[in-house]
Amino acid sequence: MNARLLEKLAADPAFWYSRVYATPCYPWQVEMATAMEAFVDDARNGRLERSEEIVGIAARQSGKNETLARFIARILMKNRRRGGSGVLTGPSWTPTLGISKDRLKTVTQRPIFAGDRPSNHAFQWEDGRHLRCGQAKVTLVSAEPTANKDGHTASLFLAVDESQDVCGAAYQRNFRPMLSTSGAPTFLFGSAWSNDTLLEQKRQQARERQKKIGRKLLWEVPWWVVSETNAAYGKHVEGEKALIGEDHPIFASQYCLRAIDSGGRLFDERPLRRCAATISAISNPAKGATTSRALTSAGAPSKTCNSRWPSTAPTST
Questions:
Q1: How far is CA 66 from CA 93, 195, 229, in A?
Q2: 314: cis peptide before it, omega within 30°?
Q3: What is the pLDDT of residues 192-241, one digit of tens each?
Q4: Which among 167, 158, 162 is positioned nearest to 185, based on CA atoms?
Q5: What is the pLDDT of residues 166-175, one digit of tens each?
Q6: Could you count the other beta carbons within 10 Å of the beta carbon of residue 235?
Q7: pLDDT per position as a tens digit, 13-66
Q8: pLDDT value for 120
Q9: Mapped to the 3 state alphabet, what secondary structure does the chain carry?
Q10: In sequence order, which residues have a C-beta less than 8 Å from that of residue 315 and are 6 or more positions away?
Q11: How far apart are CA 5 and CA 245, in angstroms?
Q12: pTM, two decimal places
C-alpha cells in the first residue's frame, strides 16, 4: 500500500469518489455521500444535538447501494487510526446483507488497497460479518426477528439498507439503542413502496426535521435525475414506462418514488391488477393468485414484525 496516497484518499472525499474506482460516482452520489460523511464527522466531534436520521430514497437500479458500500469503505479508511464501529443492517441476511457484503468486498478489493501480501491488505474480513480497516470496523447484523442483535454499538454510523422492508418496531427497539452512547447518525436507504413502511415514515419525518435544523436530511433521486448522467439508464426506464405505464404502481413507486397508499386507494383497480399480474409473472407464476389478492386488497403490510412487504415489494439496488 502507498501510505501517502492512502492519506490523501482519507483526507479528500472528492479524490476518493473520483479516483479509487473504475467507474466514478455520479454527481448526486458524491453529494449524498459527502453530506453523510459530514454527519459522521460532526457526531464524532460533538457538533450534533442528537443522533440524526438521514434518508436516501432513489429509483430502482440507480446505484444507491453502490453509493452506500463506497461510503462505508471510505468511513472505515478515514477512521482507521482513531477507530470506531458502524453497523449495517437489512431486512434479512439472504438476500439483502449477502448482496451488501458482496458489494463491500468489491469496493474494498481495489489494487490501491492491496499490500505485499494478503495479511497487509487495508481491509480485512473477520468471522464473515465484520469488515475492518485498521481500528475501524463495520458489522453486518440482520434485522430478522430471530437474529442476534445484542451487544453491538455504533459509534460511527448505523446504516439500514432496504429499510422499506424493515420492521419499524424492531428498528426502534433493537437498533436505535446502539447509538445511545455515541449520537452517531443513522442512514436509511431504500426505494418507495407503501406509505406505512419504516422508510416512508422516516421520509416524512426527515422532510419536517430538515426545515427545523436548516440542514438537508432527505435525498430523493427519481429516475429522471439518474438519467441526466446515465443515458442508458434513462432509455431503459423509458422503455419500462412505455411497457406498463407511468401510473402503474411498480413504476410510480420504484422509479418515481411515489408511495402506494396502504389503504389501497392511490391507484384504481386496473393498475393494481396489472401490478399483481406483473409480479406474478416475473417472480412466482405458481403463486399468482396469492400475490393478486395481496395487491388488489391494497397490499398493506402487517403491523407485526413477522410479516413484512418482501413477498410483494420488489427488491431494489
A1: 18, 25, 16
A2: no
A3: 999 999 999 999 999 999 999 999 999 999 999 999 999 999 999 999 99
A4: 158
A5: 999 999 999 9
A6: 10
A7: 888 888 888 888 999 999 999 999 999 999 999 999 999 999 999 999 999 999
A8: 76
A9: CCHHHHHHHHHCHHHHHHHCCCCCCCHHHHHHHHHHHHHHHHHHCCCCCCCCEEEEEECCCCCHHHHHHHHHHHHHHHCCCCCEEEEEEECCHHHHHHHHHHHHHHHHCCHHHCCCCHHHCCCEEECCCEEEECCEEEEEEECCCCCCCCCCCCCCEEEECCHHHCCHHHHHHHHHHHHCCCCCCEEEEECCCECCCHHHHHHHHHHHHHHHHCCCCEEEECHHHHHCCCHHHHHHHHHHHHHHCCCCHHHHHHCCCCCECCCCCCCCHHHHHHHHHHHHHHHCHHHHHHHHHHHHCCCCCCCCCCCCHHHCCCCCC
A10: 95, 96, 162, 165
A11: 49
A12: 0.83
What value does the mean pLDDT take over residues 142-158? Answer: 92
Q: How many CB atoms sit inside 10 A of residue 110's CB?
A: 14
Interatomic CA distance for residues 81 and 24, integer angstroms: 26
Write the CB contacts of 131 (distance below 8 Å, at least 6 apart in sequence). Answer: 72, 76, 104, 108, 123, 124, 125, 137, 138, 140
Determine the longest span between alpha carbons in the chain, in angstroms: 62
C-alpha cell at position 20:
479509487
Instruction: Grade residue 106 by pLDDT with cuts at 50, 70 and 90.
Output: very high
Q: What are phi and psi of 84, to 5 degrees?
A: 135, 165
**Residue whose C-alpha cell is 397490499:** 299
